[in-house]
């Protein structure tokens, strides 16, 4: 019996024994409410940085235990929570609690499956990892009192041991053959080197010590900033230097040469788990692949019409080359790109009241992707903040390699990442006080990314994509996500090479070649996630079509959008049930 098995057994017996000593609440609803509350408090204790991210600041002075032993212990404790859940009579619960029961069960089962397959050993992907996440930790952390800074200093001091625990996981991944493909890690040092070479006062993690509340006394500022410099110099920089040596000298050389998730231990079952996890659907890879081929062909026909409408005399490939090389389509300074993104976002802000009955309180800002991430990072991403934070949500725009960031894609990118996409959806979810926290802060990829892609579609109704090039960019983004259905399954189930995937994506979308390459590396290192966008989008579009067809003139787009978002993130089958109930209620004359 392995040490991990022993640890899991001990943990499970401990939790079960503890549960047996407590008298259970008297009825199913009370037992369920008690269970989800205890498990939520367990989550916050076990994952302190997650607690900070959701606005619970009780554990801001610590990092999670990232050791293999802790992972095994958590698996045992999750098993105990699941056993307790299964002892509750679901049929005795009210409808709202039954929905929560099903989602809670899904979370616990996925957590156990993730551990069983060894997901915790995959600490990096092609563009980022735990090491970059730590460098950004301060962005979601409160800094209002001296104690806030002391808490942060405690986290910085804990970094070396926390990093070593992640290295322990990565070494175990090497031992078990559970690594991401070596091909996707080319250049990974570019995300680590800036964290090694930066002087303490210029280091990303030192940023909070460059700005203090005006109420802080000078002596307090000096004490905290001096301690910050010391910890960065003695703990952070040496830790990252040690990690860089490990990654370049041991980890990357030992990573697998194959690409497919199905080549990992238990690979076919693991890939099907990834599909279920990210899409919330139990679909065969072949069915997804063939759906993608059909969708790419249909979008390609629309793109061909746009090319013809421009009067361009060459072939489709020549038109793509023109878009990728003509200077008119590219910003010349980072400021120009950021200003253009901000202008698009502000124009969309003005359209929101016509599309939504409820809007979030939290604002958002536009900023450049942090420099240490930018070279291998995607063109844009959303980074949320706790709803009661002094920080807004942030729409990140990549200003690295400006000649690879076309303006004709920027409208679709902005609507996806900012509003009405990730910021609006995420901020509304955080503000949904009637939804239990375990659901309010659960990011379901098919829902969130499906909504992001649907938000790009809404640009057509909101007055965007008015010239041929931005319209082509919008369709190119649609094709990009449809291509993912083909490429993800092609790589992970049907033996596609990296080169074939890059060529397919470049030939069928308006993405620059640099981005096509970084995107393929992302799909290789993150199996299944890329499927969530288009499958989620298709579901939301189909639900809207049903609502429009059934309700006719009574259809209200604002009401439909509010209904989609009011429950927070839902698995697609549960979203379907929710919207079908909403349609039926409107048919009966309800409001």
Order of helices and strands: HHHHHHHHHHHHHEEEHHHHHHHHHH
Number of helices: 23
The main sheet orders its strands as 1-3-2
Which percent range fits the helix content?
55-70%
Q: Give a count of the beta strands, DSSP E runs of length 2 or more.
A: 3
The proportion of residues in beta strands is under 5%
> How many separate domains?
3
Structural class, from helix and strand content? mainly alpha
Model description:
The chain has 3 domains: 1-117, no CATH class; 121-257; 271-536, no CATH class. It is 62% helix and 2% strand. It has helices at 3-21, 28-46, 48-53, 68-86, 95-117, 130-135, 146-176, 193-197, 218-254, 267-279, 285-310, 316-325, 334-355, 410-417, 422-430, 437-440, 445-458, 468-493, 498-508, 513-525, 532-551, 557-565, 572-587; strands spanning 364-368, 380-383, 393-397. Strands 1-3-2 form a 3-stranded mixed sheet. Helix 21 packs parallel to helix 23 (572-587). It is globular. Residues 1-24 have low confidence and may be disordered.
Layout of SSEs?
Layout: H1 3-21, H2 28-46, H3 48-53, H4 68-86, H5 95-117, H6 130-135, H7 146-176, H8 193-197, H9 218-254, H10 267-279, H11 285-310, H12 316-325, H13 334-355, E1 364-368, E2 380-383, E3 393-397, H14 410-417, H15 422-430, H16 437-440, H17 445-458, H18 468-493, H19 498-508, H20 513-525, H21 532-551, H22 557-565, H23 572-587
Helix pairs in contact: 1-4, 2-4, 4-5, 7-9, 11-18, 13-14, 14-17, 14-18, 17-21, 18-19, 19-20, 21-23
